[in-house]
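#struct-pred

JT: dropping the chains for the assembly here, can someone run the whole complex?
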Amino acid sequence: MLDYIVYEDFRAEVRAKAEETIAPHAAAIDADDHIPEGVMADVSKAGWFGATAPVEYGGLGWDTVRYAIMVEEASRASGSVGVMLAVQGSLMIYPLEKYGTDKQIKEYMPQFASGEVMGSFGLTEPSAGSDAGNTKTTAVLDGDEWVINGQKCFITNTKRDWPTVNFATVRTDPDKAKGVHGVSSIIVPSDAPGFNYGRKENKMGLRGSDTSEIFFEDCRVPKENLLGELNEGFKLFMVALDAGRISIGAMALGLGQAALELAVKHAETRVQFGKPIGTKQAIQFKIAEMATKIRAARFLVYSAGALKDAGRPYTKEAAMAKYYASQVGREVAYDAIQIHGGLGYDKSYPVERIYRDVKLDEIGEGTSEIQKVVIARNILNIQKKKK
Ligand SMILES: Cc1cc2nc3c(=O)[nH]c(=O)nc-3n(C[C@H](O)[C@H](O)[C@H](O)COP(=O)(O)OP(=O)(O)OC[C@H]3O[C@@H](n4cnc5c(N)ncnc54)[C@H](O)[C@@H]3O)c2cc1C
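RK: done, full complex below.
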């Protein structure tokens, strides 16, 4: 049985670092829509951009459970920093290590691991959201170069004041009947000719994390920038998302944990009717439910990570972890606001930021509805009938 208590010394170290270097900036990160360079430098110094990257490429070589704890603790300090690390680790470093050529790994892994380059994962398009395989962006070979045309939207880690590299899904087989089997994955640096940012999304939460449209206008990259096999890119993206869902679960866990701790503190100190409100059973029951749900979510997230580390199938368990932890994170943040009363509705108290931040976890990397589709598909033994 997985007992995460064995990781508690590790957590204490990571938490101390996040409390020292990230948490003091969390309110400003949200208010200014920006992660300051000092925080980026501290995260880089801690090695967290490359938590799971191999040591030989400048990474820390951590297993998935340790990585999840780091994302959880970074998110407990700031959701914007947590999501940045979740994308860099799960959606960039993991598929690069699994599918990249030696040359690609040598070139990009050290850059991702140090945070010198921010990685972004370009799957979503205006007509390809939950239906992520409905990719309209195309890539056509012209001599030794791919020429890419199309648009992505809602792409995280599109940090404009930073060098970025986008992994994008592109249709490489024009035969529509091939569906997702005509989609490839391609590496597109932000300085490639024809790569342009569009609108920066004006988000409800995670305001310090950059989320933007990307336009490819006759964008050219070398032929060797194909990541993985030709026309197998959709599968590669789905494999990356399995890993990503563990880190989004971890992020929700960290935000929920922060909300719980704030609610407990408030319940112990806010006096009404002559006593702390925490003496009221209505508040106690809320706290008990919040803490129990967080603990259950934590087991789901870490056990999905442990399955991945053991090389066992974990698609269903990662979807369960993300689905449940994101719901719990949102519910706990909501209850934390209620326990704070009017103060919970005030921007100078962090629970309202946490509530805005954690809502993304029920949407990004596949909505909760899509997680349930994935879970059910992996339980029900129903084959698609051929027409
Ligand atoms: C802050 C933020 C960051 C993001 N970062 C990235 C990123 O880095 N890279 C990236 O590629 N994308 C990113 N996304 C996009 C995200 O993955 C999509 O928003 C998400 O997959 C849902 O797609 P959609 O918004 O088009 O919603 P839609 O697909 O239009 O869904 C609308 C509603 O319909 C429901 N629905 C749709 N299909 C079904 C179905 N078959 N069964 C049941 N219900 C269904 C959905 O659950 C949802 O409730 C980000 C989004 C946000 C908000």
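JT: nice. The CA atoms of residues 156 and 211 lie 4 Å apart. The two ends are 45 Å apart (CA to CA).
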